[in-house]
Amino acid sequence: MHETHMATYLGYRDRLQALIAALPRPATAERLRADSIACNAVIDGLWLEASALPEAFGPGEIERLGLASVAAILGVALPGDA
What we know:
The chain is an all-alpha fold. The protein has helices spanning about 1-20, 30-50, 60-75. α1 crosses α2 and α2 runs antiparallel to α3.
């Protein structure tokens, strides 16, 4: 289980890091890595909460929270971030 999680986590984090690197902002390799870890943690946390208690959130609330949180971490405006 550890090996499978490590492979899928690193694959997703690397893809996320590449997407973050494509943003029009300066960032070191260390910053890109840290941002991808932080964004992944927010996405995972919101996914877990929404999966465990879907009735606790309004329509689109998790998506809006995710976009706003990731935008704040990255210091950019994202489409749909309100």
